[in-house]
Amino acid sequence: MVTATFEFQGYLNDFLDYPFRHRMFESACAESATTKHMIEAFGVPHTEVGRVVVNDEASSLHHLLQEGDHVVIHPPGIPVQNEEGAGLPAAPPLFLADAHLGGLARLLRMAGFDTFYDNAIHDDDVVRIAAEQNRIILSRDRELLKRRMIVSGCYIRSLEPASQMKEVVTRFSLAQHARPFTLCLHCNRLLASVDKASVLESLPPSVRNYHTEFSRCACCKRVYWRGSHWQRMQAMLKEIVADPADSDTSETH
């Protein structure tokens, strides 16, 4: 056994048992324990760890702990956007929301973020699909996020979808990538503009009389237009996502 000292920074303290929060503490560690092993033993999924510092030097989750090590664990940093756009990824990330986050998945799709969601998905499939499609797993299940095969994930702290959305937008600096109403809310597929004549038979009479611009999902064939529901969704997104980009696509049928 070896003894190391640990310090968790910022919101990572919320994962810890109360006696360990916002303080430096010692803990016995197995001789073969890594920083990842101990961090997760304290209740913090590795997906929530940004920078690891051991004995005042940058380290990693794979550091083999030694007697007397002082380990400081930081949460992920928020990317900083400058005038030239540095700090933003070339494309927005892809997400996978677990079976309990249907409301969040819908809001992410509404804002234009590719989000896989299946309310019957098994945890093993969550891990597999995320790895195959390079998706960030969004979950409120800490044990799921601790799985070794998961590279990127985010523990969702809030219970209400709009607050969950704000967490994700802030964590991944998504605001300037938003493309509202470009994805089907049901299929997660890109919408395409269509002529009114091609969808006329599927429109309610009031929509036929007052709307001229339509989009349709090639997968489920749902038709979207800018009706009152679109206006309510647009207002909600403006509150959640700072300065969402304008879009010419539409609402749901």
From TrEMBL:
Q: Which domain of life is it from?
A: Bacteria
Known InterPro entries for this protein? Mopterin_synth/thiamin_S_b, Mut7-C_RNAse_dom, Ub_Mut7C
Domain named Mut7-C RNAse: which ranges? 95-236
Which is one Pfam family of this protein? Answer: Ub-Mut7C
Q: Where is the Ubiquitin Mut7-C domain?
A: 1-75
Q: Mind telling me what this protein is named?
A: Mut7-C RNAse domain-containing protein
Task: Please name the source species.
Answer: Keguizhuia sedimenti
